[in-house]
Amino acid sequence: MATHTSTGIAARTNVQKASLIVGAVFLLVGVLGFVPGITSNYDQLGFAGHHSEAMLLGLFQVSALHNIVHLLFGAAGLILAKTATGARSFLLYGGIIYLV
Q1: How many domains does the chain have?
Q2: What residues make up the domain containing 90?
Q3: Most buried among 1, 47, 51, 84, using CB within 10 Å?
Q4: Angle at CA 41, nearest 5°, toward 40 and 45?
Q5: Residues 50 and 9 sit within 8 Å (Cβ to Cβ)
Q6: Whole-model pTM?
Q7: CA–CA separation, 46 and 18 (whole Å)
């Protein structure tokens, strides 16, 4: 007699895993952009534009709007990773948006 256990959860495809990873990284970057100490010159964090002097990890210029966009983009990656089609769309169109 064969036993078969099923969790009811389908295995994730590689594109779904990639979407989860990219989404998680963007969420992390968005959160860290609001953490003083990790973001140097945090008191100079502007709302938007290139006038913000805050630097994530001392390397990347960030603003509040930039951090919010990272948070939203990351959340979209995690949500769209639920399906292979959603994950593929997120990676393709998100990549195009970031290239522009």
Answers
A1: 1
A2: 36-99
A3: 84
A4: 110
A5: no
A6: 0.81
A7: 32
